Amino acid sequence: MSFIEEMKNKAKSSLKTIVLPEANDKRVLEAASKVTAQGFAKVVLVGSKEEANNIASQNGIDITGIEIIDPVSSSKHDEYANALYELRKEKGMTEEQAKELMNDTTHYAMMMVKKGEVDGLVSGAAHSTADTLRPALQILKTAPGTKLVSAFFVMCVPDCKYGEDGVFVFSDCGLNQNPNSEELSEIAISSAKSFENLVGKTPKVAMLSYSTYGSAKSELVDKVNEATKLVKEKAPDLLVDGELQLDAAIIPEVAETKAKGSNVAGQANTLIFPDLNAGNIGYKLVQRLAKAEAYGPLCQGIARPVNDLSRGCSADDIVGVIAITAVQAQNM
After folding, report:
1. In the Cβ-directed half-sphere of 151, how many Cα atoms lie within 13 Å?
2. Which structural domain range is residue 77 located in?
3. Which residue in 75, 78, 265, 269 has the fewest CB atoms around it within 10 Å?
4. Class of residue 45 by CB neighbours under 10 A (exposed 0-12, middle 13-18, buried 19+)
């Protein structure tokens, strides 16, 4: 059974409601229809009801029975605007600004999550990452005990014997541009939890670099080494090692040569990249050249499940992220 099929089965065990604030995107409508038909989550669409119905009709998409909320005409518009004003007034937000923001589908949907009327949110097919995450941090804020919000991808590589039968977490591939050692350690710990919660297996965390065990010397290598030490101090029971080159991290034969005796090298399933350049390039290389399924950027560290989409996503990609978001909601 594929990773996403496992997510769907888990989601069915306790149905959650996921809001999609891009009701006027064909791919989102198609995904909402598929999720409803497959029955692993309930979805609520936010956007223009008339436009959504027109798009669905023109493209033969069945959205019968799916709730569509237009923020502008919603009976809860003013209630949500007042709640947003109370949340943000100390930051200088006015009542008028709050009312205007509640016309925006993402802000409205985020307030639905805040109020507990839905269990999670998926957006980004037609919005930038900033458009999704800024209101999430302003309205939902970070989870208790979390110092840093970060973004990861679940990578499912076909016909692959590495990782967890081809399943990996890649992090951070979508948010933190150049994390320092402290931030990198927080990303590693959060990513390990995400791997365990979603995949259900023991995370084995590799702190990646262009060097293995001091084969090169530079400030870039020092940053990864320091981050590895911090992870071991903060989470002494976590299986983590670094600095490791990618081949030493996932290929047993290479690990035997470069990192003999490591409890992670050659079997890593959670890969922590030293910066966003490496993470973004890495996941896209694997996605395109190895024909891997890439689910994300998924968020970790926000108080409630909120996940971003690539603007190049397909309807099936959205279905997969909805399934993951529903499972994250169960875990919360």
Report:
1. 24
2. 3-141+309-331
3. 75
4. buried
Q: Quick one: tokens of 186?
A: 């927080």
Residue type present at position 72: V
List the helix and strand counts (H, then E) for the chain: 13, 11
How far apart are alpha carbons 236 and 231 in whole angstroms?
7
* Same domain flag for 22 and 122: yes
Does residue 154 sit in the same domain as residue 130? no
With 0-12 CB in 10 A as exposed, 13-18 as middle and 19+ as buried, what is 162? middle
Angle at 271 between CA 166 and CA 318, to 5 degrees: 60
pLDDT in tens, 262-289: 999 999 999 999 999 999 999 999 999 9
pLDDT tens profile 43-97 = 999 999 999 999 999 999 999 999 999 999 989 999 999 998 898 988 888 888 9
Give yes or no: residues 168 and 285 share one domain: yes
Distances (CA, A) of 23 to 32, 106, 136, 280, 317: 9, 11, 19, 28, 16
Q: How far apart are CA 275 and CA 270, in angstroms?
A: 15
Token pair recorded at residue 172:
């951070």
